[in-house]
Amino acid sequence: MNDTKNNNIKMKSNALDKAMNWSIKGLIATVWGSTILFGVYILIFYFLALIQGNMEQWNGVLKGLYDPNTRAATLGVGIHFAGGGIILILGCIQLLDWLRIQYPALHRWLGRVYILSAFGAAIGGLVFIFTKGTIGGLIMDIGFAGYGILTFLAAFLTLKFARARNIKRHRAWGIRLFALAIGSWLYRMDYGFWILFMDGVGHTPNFNGSFDYFMVFFFYLPNLLVAEVFIGEREIMKSKWAKAFAIISVSLATAFLLLATYSFTNELWLPKIIDSLYGTH
Question: pLDDT digit string (tens) for 217-247?
């Protein structure tokens, strides 16, 4: 009797583990697909405009981003966009274990591009902040500067431990760097959700509302806490109720991200990519 009961409990636990595993894979696939789309959009719309000398189109998406009187800021933010787009695309690839194991040379070369792009994104953003300032003022300056400094630090330590052949610490800082890299993508996702479900309460056109000030830190600091979960390699979810809650939460997050990705792609990313490539704007 007890054996039958134990077997039933074990089967239910295995089913929950499988469901949680698939839900996490679905979330990761959604995040990777969405960040790659966003990275392509950033590279084509923003960086291509810099190369073509058509930076005025930036202001159609982000008010006051381009100012012909602040060339250093324009160059800085252009490099920031280029680096940011590359790390969003390569970050997903660099975290694949099979690539690192089967093609170590490719992993190393892509890693060099990844780190260099992260440095460019961080330094370019900081140049823009210190030479022009953000639209939201001092609080946004502080929040975004902190993001740039942490990104630079994570990139530096990822490189440092790779060169020292300390794989465990290299992996840990690589995960932290990716968690920071997706911050710019999460910033758009969070605003999309907030405007959709809360009608933009606390958001102003000049990004100096209560929600705007909250977001200048929220879009990257919680990411680092989540990164520690992936780095920790310890059992966090033990009870069946905790696992069931995690499955529901992850599934809902995946559904929301799919909805937001579809909305952004259909209404902003894809039209801007087409306009940039074919000159229909």
Answer: 999 998 888 788 777 644 554 567 767 777 7
Q: What CA–CA distance (Å, rounded) separates 38 from 45?
A: 10
Please indicate, yes or no, if residue 267 is contained in any of the structural domains: yes
Q: 246 in a domain, yes or no?
A: yes
Q: Using only the alpha carbons of the chain, give its radius of gyration.
A: 21
- Eight-class DSSP state of 105: H
Residue 199 lies in a domain: yes
The Cα–Cα gap between 169 and 157 comes to 9
Residue with tokens 């953000």: 134
Task: For the full predicted model, state whether its pTM sits above 0.85.
Answer: no
Domain interval for residue 58: 31-278
Look-up: residue for tokens 């390699």?
A: 233
Cα–Cα nearest to 190, from 180, 200, 176: 200
Residue 157 forms part of a structural domain = yes
60-90 pLDDT, tens digit per residue, is 777 767 777 788 888 888 888 889 889 988 8
Crossing angle of the two packed helices 71-94 and 183-198, in degrees rounded to 10: 100
Distances from the Cα of 98 to the Cα of 32, 87, 103, 106, 230, angstroms: 16, 19, 8, 11, 18
